[in-house]
Every structure is written in structure tokens, then in C-alpha cells.
Amino acid sequence: MKRIAVMSSGGDAPGMNAFIRSVVRSAINRGLEAYGVRRGFQGLIDNDIEQMDKRSVSNIMQRGGTILQTARCDEFKTKKGLRQAIRNLNFHGIDGLVVLGGDGSLTGALSLHEAGFPVIGAPGTIDNDLGGTDMAIGVDTALNTVLDAVDKIKETASSHQRAFIVEVMGRNCGYIALISGIIGGAEMICIPEKPFELMDVVRLVEKAYVSGKTHCIIIIAEGANHSTHAIKKTLDARIEEAGFETRVTILGHIQRGGSPTAFDRLLATRLGAAAVDHLIRGESGKMVGLVGNKITTTPLRQIIDYRRELDMSLYDLARSLEF
Ligand code: ATP
Prior knowledge:
There is one protein chain. By secondary structure, the chain is an alpha/beta fold. α5 (139-160) packs across α6 (175-183) and α6 runs parallel beside α12 (312-320). α4 (103-114) links the parallel β4 (96-101) and β5. It is 42% helix and 19% strand. The longest helix is centred in the middle third of the chain and has 22 residues, at 139-160. It has a 7-stranded mixed beta sheet with strand order 3-2-1-4-5-10-11, with helices on both faces. It has a 4-stranded parallel beta sheet with strand order 7-8-6-9, sandwiched between helices. The structure holds adenosine-5'-triphosphate (ATP). Residues 9-11, 41, 72-73, 76-77, 101-105, 107-108, 111, 125, 127 line the site of adenosine-5'-triphosphate.
């Protein structure tokens, strides 16, 4: 192994820069040359690949986003796209690739491995829906961003005696909604894994009002079985029962941005170095992860075939703390 490349792919997540820095510096300090692929698999196909040195990753640890940028690229899913990507890697004499991203990106990484190109994956997604790791890079920062927003919304909600519906990311996975709901003290948490009726929300808000609460916070994942809009419409139509006036806040892309937390910086740094070590050892087709505070590897095939289930005991915990 003489030359390795690193890329970020899929949705951006805070901590990606700390990961890139760790891969580049670890590779160079172990006597390898380091390359960066811009715009994920799209850059691999377009040959947007450049050598990186230690200075090119200076002063990026604290920055959100990714200096290599990221993209979604359907062409890579085709045989032609895959072949072109491998041709470009060979053109630069690259012997191994590190792919940082979510399940889609790791599926792409697996297709490279199955085509015979050495690749190690790493979990970079704010959804925390990947097996093989307790936490993915970016999750902790996204949670802290949501928490900060919920704390602020609670203050204004209390002042005006309002109910607030706060929509957070999570199309298929309610992790962010569930955890931020627990630690933000939400009165109700709506997640795709736990379908609910619109009247359940009305009853809950009414209960909060009648019990004398000055606010009511509902945290909803974007993939929940009823939309934020439908909940708001129902609560508005039944204001006599619900008691509170309702407002909506959709947090959207602010959840992806921001300076990574201490946890994400350390996780990204540990996983970046581990990815390089595994490539040097001749391993491929695996994802590095953090399990019980130990750096581990799991076959990419297993990561993709067995999506991580949300720990529903945490949902029960939230319910057990009900007002
Ligand atoms: P996030 O969790 O933030 O959405 P992700 O990595 O899951 O990140 P996707 O858009 O699903 O994001 O995938 C990123 C890229 O990975 C795709 O644009 C495509 O280039 C590649 N990819 C996804 N699925 C496959 C596949 N089945 N085969 C090959 N490449 C794939």
C-alpha cells in the first residue's frame, strides 16, 4: 500500500473534516501518499482527485461540512460508472480508498470492494441508523444543535403559553427525535418506528394544558406517520380541546452544520486513523466503528443487510418520564 485516497459522500455531517484530517495525517505519517476525492462518487467518476499534504488539512478540525465536498451520484450505481471510478483510481496509482458516509455511500464502497478494489468504510451520517457502531460521526453534534434549539423554543413557548411542534431530520429513523425528545424534555415524541393517531396528539396537548403546564413541546421526525402540517392543522381545528395555540419550527439543514462537538472530533480522529491502519494491513470491505468505546470493524455486507433498529427501550424511558 503506497497511496490511499479519502472521500466524503452522501449527506454532510459535522466531523467529516476531522476525519479527513486524521486519514491524511495518519497516512503520511505512516509513509504513504494521501489523495482526496472531491464530491464523493461523482468526483471519482469525473477524476476530481488530488494529492493532499499535511498542510492541506490544517485548521479544519473545528469546521462543519467537508472540505472535499460531497454529492449524490446515481451514475456510480451503474457498471459503467463503477468501471470509470476504478480506472481513475488506477490512473493515480491509488491502492486503497476510505469512504465516509451513510448506508448509501457504504453500499457504493461495497461495490468497489466486490470489484476487487481495496476499500474501508466509516460511518458519517447524522441519522445514526448504521449497525457496527454505537455512534456515527456527526450524530452528537446534530443532537446538540437540536437540543440548543429546543431549549430556546421552550423559553418562548412558556412565555406565550404555546404548544410547539419541532420537526427534526429522520426520514426512516427516529433516533434524533427520540434522543432530543428525552434530553430536551419534550411532552411528546413522534417517530416513524411508533405510529400514532392525530387524536393522540390532541389528547396529549389537552392533558398538558389541563395539568397547568405553561408549554407543550412535540418533537417529530420528518418520517413520522403523520406530517407536521397535519398535526398543526388538527390542533388548530381543535383548539377548544387542546387549549394551547400551536406554532411550528422546522429545524431543517441547521442540523447538518456547525462546529463538531468534542465527541465527534475524537470519534472522527480515531476512526480515520483506524481506517488507514486496516488498509495498510491489507483489509478491505469493512467499516470501522465504535462499539463499547473500542474501535472495531464490521463487514460492509453486514452493515448494509442489517439496518440498525432503534432501541425502543429508550422510547419507553421517554414515556416513563411523562409529566
Ligand atoms: P445519508 O445517510 O446522510 O443520507 P448516504 O451515504 O446514505 O448518506 P445516499 O444518497 O443514500 O447517502 O448515497 C450516497 C451515494 O452513494 C449515492 O449518491 C451513490 O453515488 C452511492 N450509492 C448509493 N447506493 C448505491 C448502490 N446501491 N450502489 C452503488 N453506489 C451507491
